[in-house]
Amino acid sequence: MYDDGNFYGMHLIWWFIWIVLLIWVFLTPWGYRGRRGKEETPLDILKKRYASGEINKEEYEERKQVLEKN
């Protein structure tokens, strides 16, 4: 375990720490506030609301025209 003041177990612990750190850095999604992937556009949200039945076809068409003008 000890050899002239060197503790080999600590060397292995540092390797483990570096490997875990590198895995965390490369596998963590780099968004903000917990978001993953691309951010939804207002048109995407509108489509989901129409698909779920929150709004009817007329409301969908009106709001879609407003969004496409901007």
Can you describe what's shown?
This protein is mainly α and 70 residues long. The protein has one domain. The protein is built from three helices and two strands; from the N terminus they run E-E-H-H-H. The protein has helices at residues 8-27, 42-52, 57-69, and strands at 2-3, 6-7. The protein has a two-stranded antiparallel sheet. A hairpin with a 2-residue loop joins strand 1 and strand 2 (6-7). Helix 2 runs antiparallel to helix 3 (57-69). The chain is rod-shaped.
Which term fits the overall shape? rod-shaped
Q: Write down the Rg.
A: 26 Å
Q: How many discrete domains?
A: 1
Structural class estimated from helices and strands: mainly alpha
Widest sheet: strand ordering: 1-2
- Sheet-strand content, in percent, reads 5-15%
The SSE order reads: EEHHH
Mean pLDDT reading: 82
Estimate percent helicity: 55-70%
SSE layout and pairing:
Elements: E1 2-3, E2 6-7, H1 8-27, H2 42-52, H3 57-69
Antiparallel strand pairs: 1-2
Descriptive terms for the model:
70 residues; mainly alpha; two-stranded antiparallel sheet; 2 strands
Summarize the structure.
This protein is mainly alpha-helical and 70 residues long. Helix content is 63%, strand content 6%.
